[in-house]
Protein backbone atom coordinates (compact mmCIF):
# COMPACT_ATOMS: atom_id res chain seq x y z
CA UNK A 1 0.00 0.00 0.00
CA UNK A 2 1.20 3.52 -0.86
CA UNK A 3 2.46 5.73 1.91
CA UNK A 4 -0.23 8.31 0.94
CA UNK A 5 -3.10 5.83 1.15
CA UNK A 6 -1.76 4.61 4.48
CA UNK A 7 -1.85 8.22 5.69
CA UNK A 8 -5.39 8.56 4.34
CA UNK A 9 -6.39 5.39 6.20
CA UNK A 10 -4.85 6.76 9.38
CA UNK A 11 -6.73 10.04 9.01
CA UNK A 12 -9.98 8.19 8.25
CA UNK A 13 -9.43 6.09 11.36
CA UNK A 14 -8.83 9.17 13.51
CA UNK A 15 -11.86 10.95 12.10
CA UNK A 16 -13.96 7.84 12.74
CA UNK A 17 -12.69 7.69 16.32
CA UNK A 18 -13.39 11.36 17.00
CA UNK A 19 -16.68 11.14 15.14
CA UNK A 20 -17.79 8.34 17.42
CA UNK A 21 -17.78 10.75 20.35
CA UNK A 22 -20.79 12.99 20.90
CA UNK A 23 -19.98 16.69 20.55
CA UNK A 24 -19.29 17.92 24.07
CA UNK A 25 -19.23 21.64 23.17
CA UNK A 26 -23.00 21.62 22.60
CA UNK A 27 -23.59 20.78 26.27
CA UNK A 28 -24.60 23.19 28.98
CA UNK A 29 -21.49 24.28 30.90
CA UNK A 30 -21.62 22.56 34.27
CA UNK A 31 -19.45 22.79 37.38
CA UNK A 32 -17.09 19.81 37.03
CA UNK A 33 -16.84 19.43 40.80
CA UNK A 34 -20.50 18.38 40.81
CA UNK A 35 -21.41 16.83 37.44
CA UNK A 36 -19.45 14.04 35.80
CA UNK A 37 -18.48 15.18 32.29
CA UNK A 38 -17.03 11.88 31.07
CA UNK A 39 -17.83 10.78 27.52
CA UNK A 40 -16.73 7.19 28.29
CA UNK A 41 -20.32 6.38 29.21
CA UNK A 42 -22.72 6.84 26.27
CA UNK A 43 -25.71 9.14 26.43
CA UNK A 44 -29.07 7.46 26.99
CA UNK A 45 -31.68 6.90 24.35
CA UNK A 46 -34.32 9.34 25.51
CA UNK A 47 -37.55 7.60 26.58
CA UNK A 48 -39.65 10.78 26.45
CA UNK A 49 -41.44 10.09 29.72
CA UNK A 50 -40.96 11.53 33.20
CA UNK A 51 -40.67 8.59 35.57
CA UNK A 52 -38.94 7.49 38.75
CA UNK A 53 -38.07 3.78 39.13
CA UNK A 54 -39.47 2.70 35.75
CA UNK A 55 -40.52 -0.90 35.11
CA UNK A 56 -41.07 -2.03 31.53
CA UNK A 57 -42.69 -5.22 30.25
CA UNK A 58 -42.77 -6.18 26.59
CA UNK A 59 -46.10 -7.80 25.79
CA UNK A 60 -48.13 -8.28 22.63
CA UNK A 61 -45.83 -6.08 20.48
CA UNK A 62 -45.97 -3.19 22.94
CA UNK A 63 -43.95 -1.82 25.81
CA UNK A 64 -45.88 -1.35 29.06
CA UNK A 65 -44.29 0.94 31.63
CA UNK A 66 -45.30 0.88 35.31
CA UNK A 67 -44.20 3.50 37.78
CA UNK A 68 -44.69 4.45 41.40
CA UNK A 69 -47.43 7.00 42.02
CA UNK A 70 -51.14 7.41 42.62
CA UNK A 71 -52.55 3.82 42.41
CA UNK A 72 -49.56 2.75 40.22
CA UNK A 73 -50.06 4.35 36.80
CA UNK A 74 -49.06 2.43 33.69
CA UNK A 75 -48.40 3.46 30.10
CA UNK A 76 -48.15 1.86 26.68
CA UNK A 77 -45.96 2.54 23.63
CA UNK A 78 -44.84 0.75 20.51
CA UNK A 79 -41.31 2.17 20.87
CA UNK A 80 -39.16 2.61 23.98
CA UNK A 81 -38.72 6.24 22.88
CA UNK A 82 -42.47 6.74 23.04
CA UNK A 83 -44.89 8.32 22.57
CA UNK A 84 -46.36 6.83 25.77
CA UNK A 85 -50.06 6.91 26.50
CA UNK A 86 -51.45 6.15 29.94
CA UNK A 87 -53.54 2.98 29.98
CA UNK A 88 -54.80 3.35 33.54
CA UNK A 89 -53.73 2.41 37.03
CA UNK A 90 -53.17 -0.96 38.68
CA UNK A 91 -55.48 -0.06 41.57
CA UNK A 92 -58.76 1.79 41.67
CA UNK A 93 -58.66 1.97 45.48
CA UNK A 94 -55.97 2.09 48.20
CA UNK A 95 -53.78 -0.98 48.71
CA UNK A 96 -55.14 -3.37 51.34
CA UNK A 97 -51.80 -3.09 53.17
CA UNK A 98 -51.78 -0.62 56.06
CA UNK A 99 -48.30 0.80 55.64
CA UNK A 100 -46.89 4.03 54.20
CA UNK A 101 -49.16 5.97 51.83
CA UNK A 102 -51.67 3.32 50.70
CA UNK A 103 -52.65 5.37 47.60
CA UNK A 104 -49.12 5.86 46.43
CA UNK A 105 -47.14 2.62 46.09
CA UNK A 106 -43.52 2.77 44.93
CA UNK A 107 -41.26 0.90 42.54
CA UNK A 108 -43.53 -1.70 40.89
CA UNK A 109 -42.09 -4.79 39.16
CA UNK A 110 -44.44 -6.63 36.83
CA UNK A 111 -43.97 -10.19 35.55
CA UNK A 112 -46.15 -12.21 33.20
CA UNK A 113 -46.81 -15.93 33.58
CA UNK A 114 -49.16 -17.83 31.34
CA UNK A 115 -51.36 -14.81 30.68
CA UNK A 116 -51.42 -13.53 34.27
CA UNK A 117 -49.54 -10.37 35.27
CA UNK A 118 -48.08 -10.09 38.77
CA UNK A 119 -47.29 -6.60 40.00
CA UNK A 120 -45.02 -6.52 43.08
CA UNK A 121 -45.22 -3.11 44.74
CA UNK A 122 -43.83 -1.30 47.78
CA UNK A 123 -45.47 0.73 50.53
CA UNK A 124 -43.09 2.73 52.69
CA UNK A 125 -42.05 6.21 53.71
CA UNK A 126 -38.69 7.88 53.07
CA UNK A 127 -36.06 7.23 55.71
CA UNK A 128 -38.12 4.54 57.44
CA UNK A 129 -37.92 0.76 57.66
CA UNK A 130 -41.70 0.52 58.18
CA UNK A 131 -42.29 -1.02 54.78
CA UNK A 132 -44.13 -3.77 52.96
CA UNK A 133 -44.02 -5.51 49.59
CA UNK A 134 -47.39 -6.55 48.19
CA UNK A 135 -48.59 -8.21 45.00
CA UNK A 136 -51.55 -7.63 42.69
CA UNK A 137 -52.62 -9.70 39.67
CA UNK A 138 -54.56 -9.20 36.47
CA UNK A 139 -55.11 -11.05 33.21
CA UNK A 140 -55.55 -7.78 31.27
CA UNK A 141 -53.45 -4.70 30.56
CA UNK A 142 -56.45 -2.61 29.53
CA UNK A 143 -56.88 -0.34 32.54
CA UNK A 144 -59.31 -2.57 34.43
CA UNK A 145 -58.50 -2.91 38.17
CA UNK A 146 -56.19 -5.64 39.39
CA UNK A 147 -56.78 -8.02 42.31
CA UNK A 148 -54.76 -6.98 45.35
CA UNK A 149 -53.40 -9.96 47.31
CA UNK A 150 -51.77 -7.87 50.03
CA UNK A 151 -48.37 -8.18 51.68
CA UNK A 152 -45.75 -10.85 50.99
CA UNK A 153 -43.26 -9.38 53.44
CA UNK A 154 -43.18 -6.57 56.00
CA UNK A 155 -40.38 -4.92 57.93
CA UNK A 156 -40.47 -2.55 60.89
CA UNK A 157 -44.06 -3.30 61.84
CA UNK A 158 -46.91 -5.67 60.99
CA UNK A 159 -47.43 -9.38 60.61
CA UNK A 160 -44.18 -11.25 59.98
CA UNK A 161 -41.88 -8.29 60.61
CA UNK A 162 -40.54 -10.08 63.73
CA UNK A 163 -39.08 -12.89 61.57
CA UNK A 164 -35.42 -12.72 60.50
CA UNK A 165 -34.25 -11.16 58.16
CA UNK A 166 -37.28 -8.85 58.16
CA UNK A 167 -36.05 -7.72 61.58
CA UNK A 168 -32.98 -6.09 59.99
CA UNK A 169 -33.81 -5.40 56.33
CA UNK A 170 -36.16 -2.97 54.53
CA UNK A 171 -39.07 -4.41 52.49
CA UNK A 172 -38.84 -2.08 49.48
CA UNK A 173 -37.95 -2.26 45.78
CA UNK A 174 -39.08 -5.77 44.84
CA UNK A 175 -37.49 -7.54 41.92
CA UNK A 176 -38.02 -11.01 40.59
CA UNK A 177 -36.09 -13.92 39.08
CA UNK A 178 -36.76 -17.53 38.14
CA UNK A 179 -34.17 -20.26 38.39
CA UNK A 180 -33.45 -21.08 34.77
CA UNK A 181 -33.13 -24.80 35.42
CA UNK A 182 -36.14 -25.33 37.69
CA UNK A 183 -38.38 -22.30 37.08
CA UNK A 184 -38.51 -21.64 40.82
CA UNK A 185 -39.26 -17.99 41.60
CA UNK A 186 -37.45 -15.64 44.00
CA UNK A 187 -38.19 -12.18 45.32
CA UNK A 188 -35.26 -9.78 45.77
CA UNK A 189 -35.66 -6.63 47.82
CA UNK A 190 -33.93 -4.23 50.18
CA UNK A 191 -32.05 -0.98 50.61
CA UNK A 192 -29.91 0.99 53.08
CA UNK A 193 -29.86 -0.81 56.47
CA UNK A 194 -28.80 -4.27 55.29
CA UNK A 195 -28.85 -3.85 51.51
CA UNK A 196 -30.20 -6.52 49.13
CA UNK A 197 -31.88 -9.82 50.10
CA UNK A 198 -33.56 -12.74 48.37
CA UNK A 199 -36.39 -15.03 49.53
CA UNK A 200 -38.04 -17.94 47.66
CA UNK A 201 -41.65 -17.44 46.55
CA UNK A 202 -44.38 -20.04 46.89
CA UNK A 203 -45.56 -21.69 43.66
CA UNK A 204 -48.52 -19.28 43.25
CA UNK A 205 -46.13 -16.27 43.58
CA UNK A 206 -48.61 -14.63 45.98
CA UNK A 207 -46.68 -15.29 49.19
CA UNK A 208 -43.18 -16.22 50.24
CA UNK A 209 -42.36 -19.82 50.92
CA UNK A 210 -42.26 -20.76 54.63
CA UNK A 211 -43.00 -17.24 56.02
CA UNK A 212 -42.23 -18.33 59.60
CA UNK A 213 -38.70 -19.36 58.58
CA UNK A 214 -37.85 -17.93 55.17
CA UNK A 215 -34.84 -19.39 53.41
CA UNK A 216 -33.35 -15.89 52.90
CA UNK A 217 -29.91 -15.04 51.52
CA UNK A 218 -28.22 -11.67 51.48
CA UNK A 219 -27.12 -10.71 47.96
CA UNK A 220 -25.18 -7.52 48.58
CA UNK A 221 -23.83 -5.67 51.58
CA UNK A 222 -21.29 -2.98 52.45
CA UNK A 223 -19.47 -4.10 55.60
CA UNK A 224 -17.37 -1.80 57.77
CA UNK A 225 -19.61 1.18 56.94
CA UNK A 226 -22.65 2.57 58.68
CA UNK A 227 -23.92 4.18 55.45
CA UNK A 228 -24.84 1.52 52.86
CA UNK A 229 -26.55 3.18 49.91
CA UNK A 230 -27.55 0.14 47.82
CA UNK A 231 -31.16 -0.33 46.72
CA UNK A 232 -33.48 -0.83 43.77
CA UNK A 233 -32.27 -4.34 42.95
CA UNK A 234 -32.96 -6.11 39.71
CA UNK A 235 -32.01 -9.62 38.64
CA UNK A 236 -31.52 -10.75 35.07
CA UNK A 237 -30.33 -13.95 33.44
CA UNK A 238 -28.10 -14.18 30.39
CA UNK A 239 -26.21 -17.13 28.96
CA UNK A 240 -25.64 -19.07 32.16
CA UNK A 241 -25.19 -16.13 34.54
CA UNK A 242 -27.55 -14.43 36.96
CA UNK A 243 -26.88 -10.71 37.32
CA UNK A 244 -27.73 -8.69 40.40
CA UNK A 245 -28.14 -5.04 39.50
CA UNK A 246 -28.67 -2.23 41.96
CA UNK A 247 -28.49 1.52 42.35
CA UNK A 248 -25.72 2.87 44.54
CA UNK A 249 -25.64 6.34 46.09
CA UNK A 250 -28.05 9.20 46.65
CA UNK A 251 -31.26 8.78 44.69
CA UNK A 252 -33.37 11.87 45.20
CA UNK A 253 -34.04 15.20 46.82
CA UNK A 254 -31.11 16.89 45.09
CA UNK A 255 -30.70 20.50 45.96
CA UNK A 256 -28.86 22.81 43.56
CA UNK A 257 -27.14 24.42 46.56
CA UNK A 258 -25.86 21.17 48.04
CA UNK A 259 -25.06 18.26 45.73
CA UNK A 260 -23.32 15.19 47.13
CA UNK A 261 -19.63 14.76 46.28
CA UNK A 262 -19.13 13.77 42.67
CA UNK A 263 -19.73 10.03 42.30
CA UNK A 264 -21.85 9.78 45.44
CA UNK A 265 -25.05 10.23 43.42
CA UNK A 266 -27.00 7.27 42.03
CA UNK A 267 -25.18 4.97 39.62
CA UNK A 268 -25.97 1.52 38.29
CA UNK A 269 -23.86 -1.45 39.41
CA UNK A 270 -23.80 -5.17 38.75
CA UNK A 271 -22.41 -8.48 39.96
CA UNK A 272 -22.91 -11.98 38.63
CA UNK A 273 -23.10 -15.61 39.66
CA UNK A 274 -23.70 -18.98 38.04
CA UNK A 275 -26.22 -19.68 40.82
CA UNK A 276 -29.44 -17.75 41.33
CA UNK A 277 -28.73 -17.59 45.07
CA UNK A 278 -25.16 -16.39 44.67
CA UNK A 279 -22.59 -15.59 45.91
CA UNK A 280 -22.25 -12.70 43.43
CA UNK A 281 -18.96 -11.10 42.42
CA UNK A 282 -18.10 -8.02 40.39
CA UNK A 283 -15.74 -7.78 37.41
CA UNK A 284 -12.74 -7.39 39.73
CA UNK A 285 -13.73 -10.55 41.58
CA UNK A 286 -14.90 -8.64 44.65
CA UNK A 287 -17.87 -10.12 46.45
CA UNK A 288 -21.04 -8.05 46.43
CA UNK A 289 -21.30 -9.06 50.10
CA UNK A 290 -18.00 -7.21 50.56
CA UNK A 291 -19.11 -3.95 48.96
CA UNK A 292 -18.38 -5.06 45.36
CA UNK A 293 -20.32 -3.96 42.27
CA UNK A 294 -19.11 -2.96 38.80
CA UNK A 295 -20.45 0.37 37.53
CA UNK A 296 -22.34 -0.15 34.24
CA UNK A 297 -24.03 3.24 33.94
CA UNK A 298 -23.41 6.52 35.75
CA UNK A 299 -23.57 10.31 35.30
CA UNK A 300 -22.06 11.41 31.98
CA UNK A 301 -21.38 14.32 29.60
CA UNK A 302 -22.38 16.85 32.27
CA UNK A 303 -25.90 16.18 30.94
CA UNK A 304 -27.01 12.95 32.60
CA UNK A 305 -27.09 12.94 36.40
CA UNK A 306 -27.75 10.16 38.94
CA UNK A 307 -29.12 7.35 36.74
CA UNK A 308 -30.74 4.49 38.68
CA UNK A 309 -34.00 2.73 39.50
CA UNK A 310 -33.21 0.35 36.66
CA UNK A 311 -34.54 -2.77 35.03
CA UNK A 312 -33.31 -5.08 32.28
CA UNK A 313 -35.66 -6.22 29.55
CA UNK A 314 -34.58 -9.52 28.05
CA UNK A 315 -33.82 -9.46 24.34
CA UNK A 316 -34.17 -12.12 21.69
CA UNK A 317 -32.28 -13.32 18.63
CA UNK A 318 -32.71 -9.95 16.87
CA UNK A 319 -32.87 -7.41 19.73
CA UNK A 320 -30.29 -7.17 22.52
CA UNK A 321 -31.22 -6.89 26.19
CA UNK A 322 -32.23 -3.34 27.15
CA UNK A 323 -31.09 -1.57 30.31
CA UNK A 324 -33.64 1.09 31.24
CA UNK A 325 -33.54 3.53 34.15
CA UNK A 326 -34.41 7.04 35.24
CA UNK A 327 -31.93 9.92 35.17
CA UNK A 328 -31.93 13.65 35.72
CA UNK A 329 -31.23 15.84 32.70
CA UNK A 330 -29.08 18.69 34.06
CA UNK A 331 -30.67 21.14 31.63
CA UNK A 332 -34.21 20.15 32.66
CA UNK A 333 -33.99 20.03 36.46
CA UNK A 334 -33.24 18.08 39.61
CA UNK A 335 -36.65 17.64 41.21
CA UNK A 336 -37.55 13.97 41.72
CA UNK A 337 -40.62 14.29 39.48
CA UNK A 338 -38.39 15.60 36.66
CA UNK A 339 -36.58 12.26 36.36
CA UNK A 340 -36.52 11.02 32.76
CA UNK A 341 -36.79 7.57 31.23
CA UNK A 342 -33.53 6.51 29.55
CA UNK A 343 -32.41 3.26 27.97
CA UNK A 344 -29.45 1.61 26.25
CA UNK A 345 -28.98 -1.70 24.51
CA UNK A 346 -26.57 -4.06 26.24
CA UNK A 347 -23.82 -6.23 24.90
CA UNK A 348 -21.87 -8.78 26.90
CA UNK A 349 -18.10 -8.58 27.06
CA UNK A 350 -16.78 -11.87 28.49
CA UNK A 351 -20.17 -12.22 30.12
CA UNK A 352 -20.13 -8.69 31.60
CA UNK A 353 -22.88 -6.30 30.50
CA UNK A 354 -21.73 -3.13 28.70
CA UNK A 355 -24.05 -0.34 27.50
CA UNK A 356 -24.12 0.47 23.79
CA UNK A 357 -24.22 3.96 22.32
CA UNK A 358 -27.17 4.83 20.11
CA UNK A 359 -30.55 3.60 19.04
CA UNK A 360 -29.42 1.70 15.96
CA UNK A 361 -28.34 -1.69 17.25
CA UNK A 362 -26.01 -2.55 14.37
CA UNK A 363 -24.09 0.74 14.21
CA UNK A 364 -23.90 1.05 18.00
CA UNK A 365 -22.29 -2.37 18.13
CA UNK A 366 -19.80 -1.15 15.50
CA UNK A 367 -18.97 2.00 17.47
CA UNK A 368 -18.22 0.14 20.66
CA UNK A 369 -15.85 -2.29 18.96
CA UNK A 370 -13.90 0.58 17.34
CA UNK A 371 -11.23 0.85 19.99
CA UNK A 372 -7.82 2.51 19.34
CA UNK A 373 -6.18 -0.89 19.82
CA UNK A 374 -8.16 -2.32 16.95
CA UNK A 375 -7.18 0.48 14.57
CA UNK A 376 -3.47 0.47 15.38
CA UNK A 377 -3.44 -3.28 14.89
CA UNK A 378 -5.05 -2.88 11.46
CA UNK A 379 -2.67 -0.09 10.42
CA UNK A 380 0.30 -2.18 11.57
CA UNK A 381 -0.80 -5.21 9.61
CA UNK A 382 -1.47 -3.10 6.48
CA UNK A 383 1.97 -1.49 6.80
C1 LIG B 1 -38.01 4.23 17.96
O1 LIG B 1 -37.92 5.65 17.98
C2 LIG B 1 -36.62 6.13 17.63
C3 LIG B 1 -36.56 7.61 17.92
O2 LIG B 1 -37.71 8.26 17.43
C4 LIG B 1 -36.31 5.76 16.19
O3 LIG B 1 -35.02 6.20 15.84
C5 LIG B 1 -36.40 4.25 16.05
O4 LIG B 1 -36.24 3.88 14.70
C6 LIG B 1 -37.73 3.70 16.54
N1 LIG B 1 -37.66 2.26 16.57
C7 LIG B 1 -38.62 1.50 16.08
C8 LIG B 1 -38.38 0.03 16.21
O5 LIG B 1 -39.64 1.96 15.57
C1 LIG C 1 -50.62 9.98 49.49
O1 LIG C 1 -50.17 10.25 48.17
C2 LIG C 1 -51.07 11.00 47.39
C3 LIG C 1 -50.58 11.05 45.98
O2 LIG C 1 -49.25 11.49 45.91
C4 LIG C 1 -51.27 12.37 48.04
O3 LIG C 1 -52.20 13.11 47.29
C5 LIG C 1 -51.77 12.19 49.48
O4 LIG C 1 -51.84 13.42 50.12
C6 LIG C 1 -50.86 11.26 50.27
N1 LIG C 1 -51.48 10.91 51.53
C7 LIG C 1 -50.86 11.01 52.69
C8 LIG C 1 -51.62 10.58 53.89
O5 LIG C 1 -49.69 11.40 52.77
C1 LIG D 1 -52.05 -21.68 31.42
O1 LIG D 1 -53.36 -21.15 31.43
C2 LIG D 1 -54.32 -21.97 30.79
C3 LIG D 1 -55.62 -21.19 30.72
O2 LIG D 1 -55.89 -20.55 31.93
C4 LIG D 1 -54.42 -23.29 31.56
O3 LIG D 1 -55.34 -24.12 30.92
C5 LIG D 1 -53.04 -23.95 31.59
O4 LIG D 1 -53.10 -25.11 32.40
C6 LIG D 1 -52.01 -23.00 32.15
N1 LIG D 1 -50.69 -23.60 32.01
C7 LIG D 1 -49.80 -23.62 33.00
C8 LIG D 1 -48.48 -24.24 32.67
O5 LIG D 1 -50.05 -23.19 34.11
C1 LIG E 1 -49.76 -13.45 59.43
O1 LIG E 1 -48.95 -14.11 58.47
C2 LIG E 1 -49.09 -15.52 58.47
C3 LIG E 1 -48.05 -16.10 57.53
O2 LIG E 1 -48.11 -15.47 56.26
C4 LIG E 1 -50.51 -15.89 58.08
O3 LIG E 1 -50.67 -17.30 58.10
C5 LIG E 1 -51.48 -15.21 59.05
O4 LIG E 1 -52.80 -15.45 58.61
C6 LIG E 1 -51.24 -13.73 59.14
N1 LIG E 1 -52.05 -13.14 60.18
C7 LIG E 1 -52.77 -12.05 59.99
C8 LIG E 1 -53.52 -11.54 61.18
O5 LIG E 1 -52.84 -11.48 58.91
C1 LIG F 1 -33.92 -20.36 30.59
O1 LIG F 1 -33.36 -19.32 29.79
C2 LIG F 1 -33.76 -19.36 28.44
C3 LIG F 1 -33.00 -18.29 27.70
O2 LIG F 1 -33.11 -17.06 28.35
C4 LIG F 1 -35.27 -19.18 28.35
O3 LIG F 1 -35.71 -19.28 27.00
C5 LIG F 1 -35.97 -20.25 29.18
O4 LIG F 1 -37.35 -20.02 29.20
C6 LIG F 1 -35.43 -20.22 30.60
N1 LIG F 1 -36.03 -21.30 31.38
C7 LIG F 1 -36.65 -21.08 32.54
C8 LIG F 1 -37.19 -22.33 33.23
O5 LIG F 1 -36.79 -20.01 33.05
C1 LIG G 1 -37.60 -9.42 19.41
O1 LIG G 1 -38.12 -8.37 20.23
C2 LIG G 1 -38.50 -7.21 19.49
C3 LIG G 1 -38.94 -6.16 20.48
O2 LIG G 1 -37.98 -5.88 21.42
C4 LIG G 1 -39.60 -7.55 18.53
O3 LIG G 1 -39.92 -6.40 17.76
C5 LIG G 1 -39.16 -8.68 17.61
O4 LIG G 1 -40.24 -9.09 16.83
C6 LIG G 1 -38.65 -9.87 18.41
N1 LIG G 1 -38.05 -10.82 17.51
C7 LIG G 1 -38.21 -12.13 17.66
C8 LIG G 1 -37.48 -12.98 16.68
O5 LIG G 1 -38.90 -12.62 18.55
C1 LIG H 1 -31.63 17.18 27.98
O1 LIG H 1 -32.58 18.18 27.77
C2 LIG H 1 -32.25 19.06 26.69
C3 LIG H 1 -33.27 20.19 26.70
O2 LIG H 1 -34.56 19.67 26.69
C4 LIG H 1 -32.25 18.25 25.40
O3 LIG H 1 -31.90 19.07 24.32
C5 LIG H 1 -31.26 17.10 25.52
O4 LIG H 1 -31.34 16.27 24.37
C6 LIG H 1 -31.56 16.27 26.76
N1 LIG H 1 -30.53 15.26 26.92
C7 LIG H 1 -30.79 14.08 27.44
C8 LIG H 1 -29.65 13.13 27.51
O5 LIG H 1 -31.88 13.79 27.89
TrEMBL record:
Cleavable signal peptide: 1-20
Keyword Flavoprotein: no
Pathway the protein acts in: Glycan metabolism; L-arabinan degradation
Site feature Important for catalytic activity, responsible for pKa modulation of the active site Glu and correct orientation of both the proton donor and substrate, where: 173
Transmembrane segments: none
Swiss-Prot/TrEMBL keywords: Glycosidase, Hydrolase, Signal
Record keyword Transmembrane helix present: no
Official protein name in the record: Arabinan endo-1,5-alpha-L-arabinosidase
Amino acid sequence: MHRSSLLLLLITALVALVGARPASQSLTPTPPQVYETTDKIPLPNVGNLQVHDPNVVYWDDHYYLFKGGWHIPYYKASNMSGPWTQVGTVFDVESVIHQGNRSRPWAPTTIERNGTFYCFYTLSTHGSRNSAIGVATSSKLDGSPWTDHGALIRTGQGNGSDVWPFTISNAIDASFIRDNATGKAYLNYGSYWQDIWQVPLSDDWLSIETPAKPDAVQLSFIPHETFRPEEGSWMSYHDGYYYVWFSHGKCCSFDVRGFPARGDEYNIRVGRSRAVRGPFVDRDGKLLLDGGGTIVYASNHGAVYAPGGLGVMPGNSSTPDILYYHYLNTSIGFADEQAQLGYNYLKYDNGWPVVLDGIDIKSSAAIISRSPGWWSLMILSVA
